[in-house]
Amino acid sequence: MEKKHKGLLVTVDGPIVEVEVGGYKDIQRLIGCDCFDVMPWLFDDHPTCYVDDEGKLNGSKPNRAIYDGDRLVDIAFGNMLFLGLDVSTGESKDITDIESERVRSRFGGGAEGAGSGARAYNEIMFGRLAVNAKEGLRGRGKL
């Protein structure tokens, strides 16, 4: 029997909920996909973020905008799942209280809170973000 780990699920509809994850089948079920990917750079793997590998292509709804300062660097599509990581083994573990607070603080409200992915997506689609080939996407307001 697989050990269950505590994690956080950041849903497209807004709430951040505590979940138990036993293995990759649970990850697939919670994210809502067959193929998932890891965004290790988001919190330097503390915690690890799992997302739908094809979320930008398969019709998943935009979830959260991800910024580096004022610069939009990505939009996560579909649910986001956060688990702890045992760096010595590479295995998942319970998300810690500190890691949970990082996720809740960053994605619970503000510029990266609920609805931010849809807002950023609409800004890109309707031209309110400046697009520059050298700098990528920048700015969040009017040009």
Give the helices and strands as they follow along the chain: EEHEEEEEEHHEE
The count of β-strands is 10
Stretches where pLDDT is under 50 for at least 5 consecutive residues are: 130-135, 137-143
Largest sheet: 6 strands, antiparallel
Distance between the first and last residues' Cα: 55 Å
Helix content: 10-25%
How many whole angstroms does the radius of gyration measure? 15 Å
The global form is globular
Strand content: 25-35%
Provide mean pLDDT, rounded: 86
Structural class label: alpha+beta
Counting DSSP H or I runs of 4 or more residues, the number of helices is 3
Tell me the count of domains. 1
Concise summary:
It is built from 3 helices and 10 strands, in the order E-E-H-E-E-E-E-E-E-H-H-E-E. By secondary structure, the protein is α+β, with helices and mostly antiparallel strands.
Overall description:
This protein has 143 residues and is α+β, with helices and mostly antiparallel strands. The chain contains three helices and ten strands; from the N terminus they run E-E-H-E-E-E-E-E-E-H-H-E-E. The chain has one domain. Strands 1, 2, 3, 4, 7 and 8 form a six-stranded antiparallel β-sheet that branches. Strands 5-6 form a two-stranded antiparallel ribbon. Strands 9-10 form a two-stranded antiparallel ribbon. The termini are far apart.
Observed structural traits:
143 residues, two-stranded antiparallel ribbon, 20% helix, 35% strand
Explain the layout of strands and helices.
Blueprint: E1 5-10, E2 16-21, H1 24-31, E3 36-38, E4 48-52, E5 62-68, E6 71-77, E7 80-86, E8 91-93, H2 97-107, H3 116-125, E9 130-132, E10 136-138
Antiparallel strand pairs: 1-2, 1-7, 3-4, 4-7, 5-6, 7-8, 9-10
